[in-house]
């Protein structure tokens, strides 16, 4: 790979609209929830950071299930009812084997910690809670467990008000987003053209432009949050929510 350039890693088209993306803090994996626009039922799948499928699409048992997180290759799903009485639930799936290690309609997911899901019984608003082991599905009373925060690898760009001098000739629509990558800087912005909008990513040091790439083009509208970043790898979702595109800088 040439030094100080922007290089595409993968482009992944999905069968239905992307609803949610979660990143595994312990393994190089991302989990994606998609929703069928007619039935609104969810499908879950897992990819590695090169775009390879690590778990075949798994359809939820009802539209109330949604992706909460992924940890150490295990999908953590929660069930939220739209109408009363609310029928909550928790499910944990080992993506490496596409195997369910825990399912319950009796508990409400409160939070996810390092290797533990914190939950309480759905019919008891206060009182004793439980800790569910993410890897085994076994649970025990919360006082017997120590909850630790799981590390967060995701970085989001911030908006930047001033156009840098090396982008002075660029026609920019809307805000400029900025994030840092090691000792370099990433600038992301939209440009209007006859086909709609293009999303541009530029790489610079403090004084000069090092590379510039058109990431997405022919978009009918601008993207409000263009990407998230893990170290040197960036992930973009197309404006129609049907593709994930990843670049390495």
Q: Provide the succession of SSEs.
A: EEEEEEEEEEEEEEEEEEEEE
Q: How far is the N terminus from the C terminus?
A: 10 Å
Average of pLDDT? 92
What portion of residues is helical?
under 10%
- Radius of gyration, in Å, reads 21 Å
Protein name: DUF4905 domain-containing protein
List the helices and strands and how they pair.
Layout: E1 7-13, E2 17-23, E3 29-35, E4 42-48, E5 53-59, E6 65-71, E7 74-79, E8 89-94, E9 99-104, E10 107-113, E11 116-121, E12 129-133, E13 139-141, E14 158-160, E15 173-181, E16 184-193, E17 196-204, E18 209-219, E19 227-230, E20 233-237, E21 243-248
Antiparallel strand pairs: 1-21, 2-3, 3-4, 4-5, 6-7, 7-8, 8-9, 10-11, 11-12, 12-13, 14-15, 15-16, 16-17, 17-18, 19-20, 20-21
Features:
elongated; four-stranded antiparallel sheet; single chain; 249 residues
Structure description:
- This protein is 0% helix and 55% strand.
- With 249 residues, the protein is mainly beta.
- The strands form five sheets. The chain has a five-stranded antiparallel β-sheet, with no helix packed on it.
- The termini are close together.
């Amino acid at each position: 790979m040439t030094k100080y350039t922007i290089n595409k890693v993968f482009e992944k088209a999905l069968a239905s609209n992307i609803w949610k993306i979660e990143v595994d803090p312990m393994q190089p994996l991302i989990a994606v929830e998609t929703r069928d626009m007619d039935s609104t039922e969810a499908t879950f799948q897992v990819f590695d950071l090169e775009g390879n499928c690590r778990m075949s699409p798994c359809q939820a048992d009802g539209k109330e299930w949604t992706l909460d997180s992924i940890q150490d290759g295990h999908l953590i799903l929660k069930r939220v009812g739209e109408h009363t009485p609310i029928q909550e639930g928790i499910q944990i799936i080992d993506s490496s084997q596409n195997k369910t290690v825990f399912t319950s309609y009796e508990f409400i997911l409160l939070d996810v910690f390092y290797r533990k899901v914190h939950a309480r019984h759905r019919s008891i608003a206060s009182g004793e809670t439980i800790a569910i082991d993410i890897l085994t599905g076994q649970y025990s009373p919360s006082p017997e467990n120590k909850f630790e925060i799981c590390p967060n690898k995701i970085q989001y760009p911030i908006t930047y008000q001033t156009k840098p001098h090396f982008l002075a000739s660029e026609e920019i629509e809307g805000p400029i987003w900025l994030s840092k990558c090691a000792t370099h800087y990433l600038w992301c912005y939209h440009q209007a053209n006859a086909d709609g909008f293009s999303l541009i990513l530029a790489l610079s040091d403090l004084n000069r432009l090092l590379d510039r790439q058109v990431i997405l083009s022919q978009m009918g509208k601008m993207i409000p949050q263009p990407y998230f970043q893990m170290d040197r790898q960036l992930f973009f979702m197309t404006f129609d929510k049907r593709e994930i595109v990843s670049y390495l800088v």
